[in-house]
Amino acid sequence: MTVPIPRGIRNCNPGNIDFSQANNWQGQLPYDPAIESRFCRFDCAENGIRALGKLLQVYFNKYARTTVRAIITPYAPGNENDTAAYIATVAQRCGLGPDDQIPSITDPVVLGVLITSIIAQENADYAYPDAVLAEGLRRARV
Description:
Elements: H1 7-10, H2 45-61, H3 68-75, H4 83-94, H5 108-122, H6 130-140
């Protein structure tokens, strides 16, 4: 029996970022509702990881969402997620309490742990190879 590949991995969008015409992410593929009606698709996992990293930086810097709870609550709303469980899992993976201040979103270690925690939560504990994650994180920081 083969295990189905999670949607976020198939779409090279491991954060399952919703498609919006307002966004023009690097490496984003054209919208095609016949392939995917809701989420962005990217040309490679590195650009999907980049988009997730850029989105987290916007949440942190522009909207002052500086705790796991403050980031995950709008990211994974309760009408489609068990948001409390999502927050608890990501916080635990980050070694933080849900309301602890995230020390710095520009620190590659901190951003990398947030990204990998969200990817695991969104994609049935999927983990990219270290080189793919490192390149996506590098792209998110430039």
